[in-house]
């Protein structure tokens, strides 16, 4: 099955090891945020961790969880610096890549790319986090509407930008929602292909799928599941502190440590970046018909099984390591 999937979605030029056809990169992706070419020059290490999401799906939360487990509960960690967004084109790859190569701790590399636009390595372990698209959009709007002039200048006024600039959001979140749906992820990047391409490799041995809902309902249980998959030993004498430092309330109060540049790109600072951490805010705004249209679109784009997982976090895998 996997061989057929990769032939269909990633071509037949993947790397074959241990009877596994690994995904191959087939394109570059550039826009006001992305420069996917940096992945072409990354030298993978055997213990690398890659944190993959569409965006606003629990990325910063997962970075915090992994860092606190790796460093045995340290409230002073500067997680945003420790776990760089590799494909963000700011700073340019000539600056960023040497910084990543110079890291001596176990690397935690963040990406928002679809699978077929980055290099996938059998050496690394991957974790993919997803969230219902309606919740993603509501969080994205908060992120975008509070972005300040420095954010726009960094993304739009640099000479290496490819494609149109990112504009300020409309004042009406319903208009933002319809633009995002009608133009597939506008004004950021396509939503459905990100979910779909990663979903196709859910049974590879070096990737773990985590859902925002499950982190919300049982964070300690999900943390132990992640630690087991990533081969991170847990010091039980430090466990309560580790869990506390990963709680939403603690992260909100200490957001400057986990938000890029300490929140300098957002009016209101780092605490605005880490907003509410709740689901379902769209229910009071979207009509029943609008919500149903999204759900039908999810099934068309992703298939029934993936759409159900995206909405609920419920999934059935063929391998013990992947049980949600």
TrEMBL record:
The keyword Transferase applies. GO terms for molecular function: sulfotransferase activity. InterPro entries: P-loop_NTPase, Sulfotransferase_dom. Residues 47-293 form the Sulfotransferase domain. It comes from the Bacteria. Keywords: Transferase. Belongs to the sulfotransferase 1 family. This is Aryl sulfotransferase.
């Amino acid at each position: 099955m996997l061989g057929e999937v990769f032939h269909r979605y990633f071509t037949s030029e993947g790397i074959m090891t241990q009877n596994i056809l690994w995904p191959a990169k087939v394109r570059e992706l550039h826009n006001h945020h992305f420069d996917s070419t940096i992945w072409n020059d990354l030298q993978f290490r055997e213990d690398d961790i890659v944190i993959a999401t569409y965006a606003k799906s629990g990325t910063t939360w997962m970075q915090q969880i992994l860092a606190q487990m790796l460093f045995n509960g340290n409230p002073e960690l500067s997680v945003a610096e420790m776990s760089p967004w590799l494909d963000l084109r700011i700073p340019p790859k000539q600056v960023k890549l040497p910084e990543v190569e110079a890291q001596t701790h176990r690397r935690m590399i963040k990406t928002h790319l679809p699978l077929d636009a980055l290099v996938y390595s059998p050496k690394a372990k991957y974790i993919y986090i997803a969230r219902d698209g309606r919740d993603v959009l509501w969080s994205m709007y908060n992120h975008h509407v509070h972005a300040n002039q420095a954010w726009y200048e960094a993304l739009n006024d640099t000479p290496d930008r490819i494609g149109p600039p990112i504009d300020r959001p409309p004042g009406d979140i319903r208009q933002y929602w319809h633009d995002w749906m009608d133009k597939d992820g506008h004004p950021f990047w396509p939503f459905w292909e990100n979910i779909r391409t990663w979903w196709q490799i859910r049974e590879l041995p070096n990737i773990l799928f985590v859902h925002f809902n499950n982190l919300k309902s049982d964070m300690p249980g999900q943390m132990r599941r992640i630690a087991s998959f990533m081969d991170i030993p847990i010091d039980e004498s430090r466990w309560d502190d580790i869990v506390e430092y990963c709680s939403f309330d603690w992260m909100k109060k200490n957001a400057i440590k986990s938000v890029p540049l300490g929140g300098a790109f957002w009016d209101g600072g780092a605490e605005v970046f880490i907003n509410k951490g709740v689901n379902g805010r769209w229910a009071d705004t979207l009509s029943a018909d609008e919500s149903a249209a999204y759900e039908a679109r999810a099934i068309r784009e992703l298939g029934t099984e993936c759409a159900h997982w995206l909405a609920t976090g419920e999934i059935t895998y063929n391998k013990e390591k992947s049980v949600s």
